[in-house]
Amino acid sequence: MVSVGTIIWLSSELMFFAALFAAYFTIRAVSPDLWAQEVEKLNIPFSTANTVILVLSSFACQWGVFAAERGQVGRGGPIWKFWGGRSGWGLREWFILTYVMGAVFIGGQALEYAELIHHGVTIPSSAYGTMFYLTTGFHGLHVTGGLIAFLFVLGRTYLARRFTHEQAVTAIVVSYYWHFVDVVWIGLFATIYLIK
């Protein structure tokens, strides 16, 4: 039931981001010259690297889910041995790595915002600034929510005496959300940074 509820909730989130995409394309169609001028200020190589970090975090998250499904909450061997079933990393290690990568992504977004503000791209400066910060800002809030969810899952695994099926379901549901956030970012990245 939790998984079904999460999927329904994520569908409503999809509609929210669809509305942001629609607003972005509508305002972009009205003022294409402004878009051409403002897009030149974006640091595409930096944003690409930041995107790769977020996409890789989704893989780390999924490997954590695989560990949760086999009931492995912690690593079974040395820290440098990632793979190997029960002798490799468990849910905690993969989710901690996912958390760190997500936090690096948010830090990268903050650096990008600071650079754009330095170049005069702000929310009140133009329609481009408004749409850029609305779309990427709401996505950043969703990533931050995912990071909080990872802390919740990790905290439960450290406080519980044993790893239960309910904890595994919680990890799986959090992974649904994280994958959703990653897919939305890929769409935003393509829309904002790549489509001319």
TrEMBL record:
Q: What is this protein called?
A: cytochrome-c oxidase
Q: Which Gene3D superfamilies match?
A: Cytochrome c oxidase, subunit III, four-helix bundle
GO MF annotation, one: cytochrome-c oxidase activity
Keywords attached to this Swiss-Prot or TrEMBL record, sorted alphabetically, are: Cell membrane, Membrane, Translocase, Transmembrane, Transmembrane helix
Q: What is the lineage of its organism?
A: Bacteria, Bacillati, Actinomycetota, Actinomycetes, Propionibacteriales
Record localization: Cell membrane
Start and end residues of each Heme-copper oxidase subunit III family profile domain: 1-196
**Parts of the chain that traverse the membrane:** 7-27, 47-68, 89-111, 131-155, 176-195
Which PANTHER family would you find in this protein's record? Answer: CYTOCHROME BO(3) UBIQUINOL OXIDASE SUBUNIT 3, CYTOCHROME C OXIDASE SUBUNIT III
One term under GO cellular component = plasma membrane
The keyword Transmembrane helix belongs to this UniProt entry's keyword annotation: yes
Specify the protein's topology with respect to the membrane: Multi-pass membrane protein
The protein's organism comes out as: Nocardioides seonyuensis
Write down the chemical reaction(s) this protein catalyses.
4 Fe(II)-[cytochrome c] + O2 + 8 H(+)(in) = 4 Fe(III)-[cytochrome c] + 2 H2O + 4 H(+)(out)
Main localization of the protein described in the UniProt heading:
membrane
Q: Which InterPro entries match?
A: Cyt_c/ubiquinol_Oxase_su3 (IPR024791), Cyt_c_oxidase-like_su3 (IPR000298), Cyt_c_oxidase_su3-like_sf (IPR035973), Cyt_c_oxidase_su3_a-hlx (IPR013833)
Which PROSITE patterns does the protein's record reference?
A: COX3
Question: Biological process (GO) annotations?
Answer: aerobic electron transport chain
Enzyme Commission code:
7.1.1.9
Q: Please report which protein family the annotation says this sequence is part of.
A: Belongs to the cytochrome c oxidase subunit 3 family.
